[in-house]
Amino acid sequence: MNLRLFVRKNVQLARCPNCGKIAALRRSRTRNVIEKILRKIKLSPYFCQSCGWRGKIFSYKISKNFFQLVLMYIVLMILSAYIVQKFLKSYFD
Ligand SMILES: [Zn+2]
After folding, report:
1. Is 55 found in the same domain as 34?
2. The pTM is what?
């Protein structure tokens, strides 16, 4: 399963959560171990060049068609399970 289908990169061009300015966010240096760990799970510290806001933003956002894709995978799984079941039934009969 390709994870890139589900998430899209939430670049630094995102809107500042504090002042709402676009493209003012810059990646900030990790200051301690906790931030380094958080960075590993793509929760990076950012700061706003415009208002000085500093905080953590998830680097990835769920894509618009996330639920469509999940639904599609579920349907495919049920369908393949149904086919396998049919096949096994006819095989053992
Ligand atoms: Zn700001």
Report:
1. yes
2. 0.45
Residue 50 has which token pair?
Answer: 């415009």
Q: How far is the CA of 5 from the centre of ligand 1 (A)?
A: 30
| Burial class of 69 by CB neighbour count within 10 A (0 to 12, 13 to 18, 19+) | middle
- Main-chain phi, psi angles of 9, to 5 degrees: -70, 125
Tens digit of each residue's pLDDT (9 = 90 or more) over 66-82: 888 899 999 999 999 99
In the chain, the number of structural domains is 2
Whole-number Å distance, alpha carbon 52 to ligand 1 midpoint, is: 6
- Run of H or E including 35: helix 33-40
